[in-house]
Amino acid sequence: MNCETGCKLFGAYRVAISIKDSTVLIHATVGCNWGTMLFHTPSQLTDIRQACTVIYEEDLVFGGEKILFKALNDALNLYQSRVTFLLTGCVPEIMNDDIEGVLKKSENIKPVYYINAAGFLGDTTLGVTSAIDMLICNMTEKSVIENSVNIIGVFSDDFKVDADLDNIKTLICDVVKINAVVPYDFYENILDVPAAALNVVFEGFEAVGEKLQNRFGTPYIVVNYPYGVEGSRYFVDRIVSALRIRPKNHFASEKIALNQLKKVKGYVDRLRGMPVALIVDSVRIKGLKALLENELGMSVEVSIDTSKSQNNISYIEQVRQSNAILIIGSSFERNIAEKLSVPFMQFTYPVFDKVCISKNGYAGFEGLLCFVEDILNTIFEFDANFKVCHTDSHLNITEFPVKM
Predict the structure, then answer these.
(1) By C-alpha distance, which of 224, 228, 201 is closest to 212?
(2) Which residues make Cβ contacts (< 8 Å) with residue 208, sequence separation at least 6?
(3) In terms of DSSP H, where are the helices of 249-333?
(4) Is residue 105 part of a domain?
(5) Cα 387 to the chain's mean position, in Å?
(6) Do residues 388 and 331 share a domain?
(7) pLDDT at position 2, please?
(8) What CA–CA distance (Å, rounded) separates 132 from 199?
(9) Could you tell me if 82 and 154 lie in one domain?
(10) What pLDDT band is residue 157 in, cutting at 50, 70 and 90?
């Protein structure tokens, strides 16, 4: 699912379910519930904090307010959550259900946020923006905590999110305090966002930084995801410079990572000049591209930001017309890789055909080792089971030839 063609419901859901002590009630048909859950739970099978009214044909005739009232009260009583998000899909909005009237009659002692997330109203990006805007509207002024930062643009269903956050905290924890991770945090921490001295905003979330600055006066910086040695250094330098504090000495961590990479130097050298296609979201694409080109010497032939509208040429045609013989993207791009008979590496949302429960993230200095390990193993696995290339030539991936 690409952000420009995806449903507003999915964007609002990503924000709502990322709040660790929330419940999400979807007022829609059952498909909306199963679709969102599919993207959220692959690596968190026990984290089921959502329910659905499951609209049937009779509800189309008589309206869905009765089943919504019951489902909302059941959800509020069943889940001991700090906050509840009520997301409405296309059908109840077309039926013009009186959602506000139901909310007034329900037993909602704790906060309930209602978001009209009908797919015909907008895309995934709009859903994310609408949900975060609603959270900001419920924030109040706080006393600013010195040398504290919010990390903005991280979701619970990002691939390797917990491992990446651990690595990011390792990068900066001895010089700054992480006040909140937005929206992947507890509700109380989200409400405390105005207490930070600085907002560290990932690419694609500039509007959130601007909104928080306008409302609370919190300055913000826009950063790339910290991939590789140079990317991790730059990430830390931007933060300490903005806060005007002494930077951390990373020589020890860098040395450990680089010494480990020496063990596979021969393989890493083979990556130089290898043409690759990136189909990645705004948060990660620039940082990943810099790592591949500047540190590993690879050649990024295709760079598609899935958070932005693309031209009319399909993803598969852009890759086919390039020299790329490796695709890095979401689970949806596996189909492209199989059609073109090239290696494929899962990297960005949504990843629903691979689990990650270890601490092997891709961010930071330690993450560089995990990334190189995975990219090499992806290539080796393909080479051990290689197929005839779509040009009918014998593709020996270990020599990284350019496709004709």
Answers:
(1) 201
(2) 129, 132, 136, 152, 153, 182, 199, 201
(3) 251-261, 265-270, 282-290, 315-320
(4) yes
(5) 32
(6) yes
(7) 47
(8) 14
(9) no
(10) very high
Domain coverage including residue 184: 148-252
Residue 368 lies in a domain: yes
The predicted-structure confidence for 37-64, as pLDDT tens digits, reads as follows 988 888 888 888 999 999 987 777 677 8
Average pLDDT over residues 373-390: 72
Residue 312 placed within a domain:
yes
Per-residue confidence (pLDDT) for residue 384, from 0 to 100 = 61
In a domain, 142, yes or no: no
Do 278 and 346 meet the contact criterion of CB atoms below 8 Å apart? no
Output the domain CATH number for residue 348.
3.40.50.1980
- The verdict on 35 and 112 lying in the same domain is yes
Residue with tokens 């690759």: 276
- The structure tokens 């805007």 sit at 133
Quick one: pLDDT at residue 45? Answer: 87
Phi, psi of 299 (to 5 degrees): -115, 110
The distance of Cα 375 from the centroid of its chain, to the nearest Å, equals: 20
What tokens appear for 287 in the block? Answer: 């940082």
pTM: 0.90
Q: How far is CA 269 from the centre of its chain?
A: 30
Per the structure, how many domains does the chain have? 3
Helices (H), 86-227: 90-95, 99-105, 124-137, 161-172, 187-191, 206-216
Is there a single domain that holds both residue 113 and residue 68?
Answer: yes
